[in-house]
Amino acid sequence: MSQKNEFDLIRLYFAPLADDKGALNLQDDAALYIPTPGNELVLTTDTIIEGVHYLPDTPPEKIAAKLFGVNLSDLAAKGAKPKACLINFAPHKNISEAWIAEFTAQVGAALKAYDIKLLGGDTVAAPNQAMFSLTLIGEVASGGMVQRGGAKIGDDIFVTGTIGHGFIGLEDAKAERSSPCRDLFEYPQPPLAFALVAASYMSAAVDVSDGLAADLGHICKASVCGMQIDLPAIPFADPVSKNLLAQLNGGDDYQLAFTAASENHDKLKQLAAEQSIQLSKIGHITDGSDLILLNSDGLTLDYSSTGTSQELPSGFSHFGMKK
Amino acid sequence: MSQKNEFDLIRLYFAPLADDKGALNLQDDAALYIPTPGNELVLTTDTIIEGVHYLPDTPPEKIAAKLFGVNLSDLAAKGAKPKACLINFAPHKNISEAWIAEFTAQVGAALKAYDIKLLGGDTVAAPNQAMFSLTLIGEVASGGMVQRGGAKIGDDIFVTGTIGHGFIGLEDAKAERSSPCRDLFEYPQPPLAFALVAASYMSAAVDVSDGLAADLGHICKASVCGMQIDLPAIPFADPVSKNLLAQLNGGDDYQLAFTAASENHDKLKQLAAEQSIQLSKIGHITDGSDLILLNSDGLTLDYSSTGTSQELPSGFSHFGMKK
């Protein structure tokens, strides 16, 4: 894109999406955001790079869907309502207008679905590899942000949805197979509506993006606690597969893993049912510092933290704390 | 960088810079920002791409300095005090630890100089070309943001500093010549302190990043007005050069151009003097829609809006409204 076309394209495709007053008609280099009184802001940003997060021939609508999905998942884990966003848009210098039209159509669909205001951003043509960053601004009632560090000994551990559909979906995408897992991998559906009503009943939360094992490790590290996880209780996307460890470590699930005190269980189950969200109790917080995985025999399982997709062996060990 | 090294490097080099409570020790995928009561937020983001905004062999401290300079300049033009930031850090996959150390040292210097809190961001290795985005959060008293659209007929037009040092600095950098213009080009020094005290006396403002002519055009378009500019009054970095048009269009000056009612002139001059800021009155707002450039004979000058660095011809025309 030439510099001139770039401006034309902003006007043509992004300006109609940026209809909030704070976007200043995208005629400015900055945007105005007026926080809702009594609220605090939750900020998150994630970058999607061609050749790292998606293959060069990925359709633009899938890139835009992923860009919003991964960031919305981060806000869900904080119990934060998405309010506004900025997009750093750096497509290939030789992309077509049709590409931009398809990308921005999906951006518009995400903005509408989640009631997010596009306030601004930055557009530049990338010479060698495209890259897109989304910065999301969410709000929580003051003091209401769910953190990773709030888990207490005795709390139970829950996950929403299924675990491992990210890994299986990637395999299906590579093999060009259609499947429900591939749909979830390409169009992440973080349980945001559930998170917003359930956040006040959670003691700690994380979104499952790095792999359930690693993400639970984030809670252990931040909360300075251990975990005991019941392997048969994990809702694997493909529970009869031999690649359970790969499903556990594959990431890209964009579900929530969270902890909660026992008095909140009934309320959480009720809220999940109201939202048609699958909710599974998979273990509890311990006073150690390790993540112990128990199989159906009650034996702890040997586990290598390298994240390779070997079959789950039996024996004893624990997850290394990643990150 | 491998995935593992990436996490190590965040911890080693970015974590010490992210010492605000809202950064959550960079152990989370989101950050907390608590707005100051009575304030509104000004958001800006800009991306720096290897091969577009800097040459591949540019020292990392210059890349970091530019990343902060261009974004701080945007906040200055709004009269907004920088408060916090997020960094999308996508260096080359094969960069050295020394490179990261130098980059983050300059980031640390900028955070300290402007009292900005690093709250978070995103790190990923870029396979083909590095890219860095900075999202800055600034604050203004409610209703106090200077906009591009506030210029009134009869207002005078001012610029801070000199115009054209960006263009000359780039030429010097290409020729590997040391010069004060090159220093300003590589280490932008937007007049932020002046902007913060003077903003309430401005009716409209813009930072000079696209070139003075284009940036004044932004004010014309947003304020629905025309301008008459006195060429001899423009404080060119090299006023005896034959490339005045290039200095006018080159951009990368990161100074302020703003408009103000006549009753505010004395106060603005006083504030500029207190800050040792060069302040030049270069024209006034008209009721037309064109940007008219007058030379020393009082004749309007022919001007091509293509932004080429041809010598200024005499004759009659006006600036096309560039975005």
UniProtKB/TrEMBL annotation, chains A, B:
Q: Which residues bind Mg(2+) 5?
A: D210
Q: Where is the PurM-like C-terminal domain?
A: 153-291
Where is Mg(2+) 2 annotated to bind? D46, D74
Q: Name one GO biological process term.
A: thiamine diphosphate biosynthetic process
Arranged from A to Z, the UniProt key words for this protein are: ATP-binding, Kinase, Magnesium, Metal-binding, Nucleotide-binding, Thiamine biosynthesis, Transferase
Look up the domain of life of the source.
Bacteria
Stored CDD domains: ThiL
Q: Identify the residues that bind ATP.
A: G121, D122, R148, S209
Key word Nucleotide-binding present = yes
Q: Which residues bind substrate?
A: H53, D252, F316
Which GO molecular-function terms appear in the entry?
ATP binding; magnesium ion binding; thiamine-phosphate kinase activity
Q: Where does Mg(2+) 1 bind?
A: T45, D46, D122
User: In which residues is Mg(2+) 3 bound?
Assistant: D29, D74, D207
What Pfam families does the database record attribute to this sequence?
AIRS, AIRS_C
EC numbers on record:
2.7.4.16
Give the catalytic activity. Answer: thiamine phosphate + ATP = thiamine diphosphate + ADP
Q: Where is the PurM-like N-terminal domain?
A: 28-140
Per its UniProt record, what PANTHER family does this chain match? Answer: THIAMINE-MONOPHOSPHATE KINASE (PTHR30270)
Question: What does the UniProt function comment say about this protein?
Answer: Catalyzes the ATP-dependent phosphorylation of thiamine-monophosphate (TMP) to form thiamine-pyrophosphate (TPP), the active form of vitamin B1.
Q: What does the similarity note say?
A: Belongs to the thiamine-monophosphate kinase family.
* Annotated protein name in UniProt: Thiamine-monophosphate kinase
Which species is the source of this protein?
PS1 clade bacterium
Lineage of this protein's species? Bacteria, Pseudomonadati, Pseudomonadota, Alphaproteobacteria, PS1 clade
